[in-house]
Amino acid sequence: MDVSGAVQWWEEWQLRILVLASVVNQGILMLASFFRKLHNRPSWFRQFLIWLAYLGSDAIAIYALATLFNRQKKHSGHGVLEVLWAPVLLIHLGGQDAISAYNIEDNELWTRHLLTSVSQVTVAVYVFCKSWPGGDKRLLQAAILLFIPGILKCFEKPLALSRASINSLVSSDEPILRSIDRSEAKIDPLEDFIEKATSSAGPNDTPATPADFAPYKLFVDLASPSPGHRMRMLMSFTALDDIQAHRKLQFWLHQTFYLLYTKQKMFGRHGMDMDDYPNVRSIVSLFVRGLAMYLPFAAIALFHQSHREAYIKEDVVVTFILLSCTAVLEFHVSFLNFDMPIENPRIQRPKLWRVFEKKNPRPASTIDSIVSQYNLIGLLVRNEHSKMMTIMGDFGCTDFLQQRWPMKSCRSSFKITKVVFKYVKSGWDHHISDVSTYRKFSDNRGQSTLERQGCYQELGWSLEGAFDESVLLWHLATDFCYYMDTGASPSQCTQDSCPGVYACPAWCKGSEHHEGAVLCREMSNYMIYLLYVNPEMLMAGTRRNLFTAAYDELKGTIVVGDNKSPVEEKDLTQRIIFAVDGGGSPPPDGTQRQQGGITHLAWSIAKVLSGLPEEKMWNVIQGVWVEMICFSAARCRGYLHAKGLATGVEYLSYVWLLQYYMGMETLAAKLQKVDHHRKGVAHGDDPLTSHATGPSGSSGAHAEGQSAGYRASEDPMEEIL
0.85 cut: is pTM over it? Predict the structure, then answer.
């Protein structure tokens, strides 16, 4: 076939290929929506495919409509069935209900989608009216039946995006939760809330309703509600056990995902009590769903009764494929809509779905308990054995690939949530008594644990400076303690349970505290994952290059001695310990790095910890990591948590939501708090200056030992910004 023949073939088959590609892309988009519903953070390659399918759904349909417009403009005279494809392309342009937005920024572009819908509907109707030859009534009836759901779905998509936008969520027509009440006795709402929470009459308050737990407005950084509302929520959530609390968090994260990234809001299901269901909006949306589900099947029947023999054979085959696949894709919407989380027992799913669910029961937890992991020493081991990293290094793409090549995640979401839940509960029971102690408890990032365990004098300096540096130091110190030689048999500390997986925490069989040690390392690996892969969620201003600097320093450390590369992470860690503990030569760039490098600072922490009894050592490490996770979660914007739901639940969102339900302050509440200088309040009792009394909340006993970084939190705005 010469060039002219290829061009002629493409002119003939171009539109057929485009419409078939459009329906195939819709199928890929439907499968992609199921991957997103699993809330299992996909690999960067799978995320790229989902993103490509989402963009392609609009691009292919628009290109096909433009091609159809140009072909009919030439009056070729042999494309009658091609006109029937126009309303089908409008249905495709409406997208899949389970993936209305790929990321949260798409919701803000609803005006662009509205303009696209208006223009493409105009083109489709114009082409149909201009090119319809008449004569075949059955085909005309089929086209009309397809235009109805096509036009409705085209305009439903920008409306769904608009209702999930930030401004719409903030300014919704739901009842406003007031945060100011003139009848309240206290001027400071926080003081009033803490007094109620710590009083014996607190648990007798009215329990919270499901609507009180709805977190979607929390994700757009609204201020905290009134003290009474917070009190009801605190008492209701405190009454839950560990499993119930974890499932409650899973449910609301799942619900928020559906609200922001699907067309759930169009069904009126974002209200959690759902007493007003069904409402006008939900009835209209269900009506559109019904038309989109059943009218394509009616169109297939009408097309089957039309004069098919009078049309081009290839066009007939393509039309049958197009109509059948579109009908099947739209019919699955019924299962999608009733697969949404329902907490109200009065709301029942349809009988067909209940029969299917009875035969195929789902686990109680619909969101996989995945915690992302990254490890500095594990990265060294992986890169030593990866030819791909060597090749990418020659092109200067090593850092890009390392951020998108994840290490093996762990399923410890429930375990960590259980520890955090216990920590916040103990704060209310034993530490929080007024505004001063409340703020000190909220501002802890390890100081309280060190003070309580009597280690603050030796290790308090490690929490002085920037938060990202403290995370990196304690990450390396945790690894050093984990792999430190304690006299046990080397075979007892291998990674036999997961050979070849470098970042998955090993099961330390040489210690009776192995389970706690593994949990500590999982929290450590998650925090270093945030520092390197998702730094904006760890803390505003987090420096990713700290990780790369530490990586280069470790790489320079293991070059000392023989050039034999270690095979396992344990071997490499022990060689690093040997080098920094005086058994090796100083780094090539001099002794300054030897004395004050990140590795040596981390080893000095590990040496102090290793001098403690083993149980106490892991209790200290666990307490520091729990406080660091809570400290980071409380200082992350709700918008970032909402953004993270697009690619899978970030575990930090669990902790953030848990703290909110347990009465702790979010970043939005911190930004809106007021410094109350009231007459009769001593400076030492002022909530904004109470940090200087010491990490444990004692009245100045350790003020002199307090770090400069910890004292700097006297100014809340300075601490946040």
Answer: no
